Amino acid sequence: MRFFLTILLLFSLFSSVNGQVTATTKKETILQSTIVNGDTIPHIELKEIAILPPRSFKNRFEERQYWRLVYNLKKVHPYSKLVSVTVRQVDGKLGALKTDKERRKFIKSMEDSLWKKYEGDMREMTITQGKLLFKLIDRETTNSTYYWIDSYRGSVSAFFWQGMARLFGTNLKSKYDPKGEDKLIEQIVTYIEKGYI
Fold first, then answer.
1. How many CB atoms lie within 10 A of CB 73?
2. Which letter does DSSP use for residue 53 in this model?
3. How many other CB atoms are found less than 10 A from the CB of residue 131?
4. Which of 34, 45, 90, 109 is the most exposed place for a label (fewest CB within 10 A)?
5. pLDDT digits (tens, 9 = 90+) for 109-130
6. Contact 168, 130 (CB under 8 A)
7. Angle at 184 between CA 179 and CA 185, to 5 degrees
């Protein structure tokens, strides 16, 4: 008898919890439609679905390189988006400032706040990830990293950082070429943005 009461109690608790969940998560959806010749035709917007051919590799080394590139791009892609948003914000605020002193002060404060927030992440990036970030910054902003350093910090600072980049085998002035040498990067970034990989 006690066993049956326990089961009955558990069942009633489960059904009351289940009833509460369905009552609170119920959503109403308004279906869009068009009337054609007296018939109502519903419209449902579906997300794009891509069917990708299986990628073939010549050997395991090429496959490992591809997946390493995917890993690195997934790591730096959010930062390139952040740079794009930040550049637009900074440009908007700089236009409102009247003197060069105010502009320099604002740029310095932005630089300090971004550095505090993202310093650890930037220091953990590899040289390869840094090179990819420079390319993606050009992709997102249509200007090279050198251009942005020159615009915000001046030509002396841009020259210095270009020299540092050259020591590590990269070029801050390099342009992003989605139809040429960066074709594979463009394809992978597009897949990342659409959520395929």
1. 22
2. P
3. 19
4. 45
5. 877 787 787 777 778 888 888 8
6. yes
7. 95
